[in-house]
Amino acid sequence: LHTSGSTGTPKPVVVPHGALANRLAWTARRFPLGPGQRMLMKASPGFDVSVWEIFGPLLSGAAVVVARPDGHRDPAYLARLVREQRVDAAHFVPSALALFAAEPEAARCTDLTWVFSGGEALTDALVRDCAAALPAPVVNQYGPTEAAVDVTARRAVPGGITGELYLGGAQLALGYLGQLARTAERFV
Q1: 44 burial class (0-12, 13-18, 19+ CB within 10 angstroms)?
Q2: In sequence order, which residues have a C-beta less than 8 Å from that of residue 154 and are 6 or more positions away?
Q3: Terminal Cα-to-Cα distance of the chain (whole angstroms)
């Protein structure tokens, strides 16, 4: 998988199959989807969250509703698609979530059970806007690509506490492809 992290420059991350399988199994336990349910797939296959949008539902017997190319840029289209296809779960980066929540049609997406957000900072103001506009709570996800996409998820509540997080376990990547010094610095 590739991550731009804080630099904006894509870096290849060696994520083993077992790490992705572990992440998908955790998600299936924590946020279950199953037969008859649907998840929206709108991320580019090069974006790490696409792994979950594609394989998460399929491994659980749920369906994947694929948005048209560049559909992620059109909140009115996404709201119609989610409503018409009776989508149960969707993931948005916060900047896209703000546009989706501001779309009047999004309030009519009554089949939504899970609205996930990650990839950028989720603000308290956006959490409040989503609570007022959407039929489902927002689940804030966090995790770097280096830990197979996400490592924490929690129903979003106003926060403000800063800290430092060290990650380990089966979900951790092996390092950066061809970048031994960076790997040694970041994978302690």
Answers
A1: exposed
A2: 139, 140
A3: 20
Question: Going along 70-156, which residue ranges are E strands?
Answer: 89-92, 114-117, 138-142, 152-155
pLDDT score, position 48: 81
The SS3 call for residue 183 is helix
Confidence of residue 125 (pLDDT cuts 50, 70, 90): very high
23 contacts 54 by C-beta, under 8 angstroms: no
The SS3 call for residue 153 is strand
Whether 89 and 116 have beta carbons less than 8 Å apart is answered as yes
Q: Please state, in angstroms and rounded to a whole number, the distance separating the CA atoms of residues 154 and 175.
A: 27
Which of 41-45, 105-109, 164-168 is predicted least confidently?
164-168
Cα separation, 82 vs 87, in Å, equals: 5
Give the CA distances from residue 134 to residues 38, 57, 158, 179, 188, in Å, rounded to whole numbers and listed in that order. 17, 22, 17, 43, 41
Distance CA 175, CA 185 (A): 10
The encoded tokens of residue 145 equal: 């690509």
Question: Coil, strand or helix: which one is 140?
Answer: strand
How many CB atoms sit inside 10 A of residue 84's CB?
10
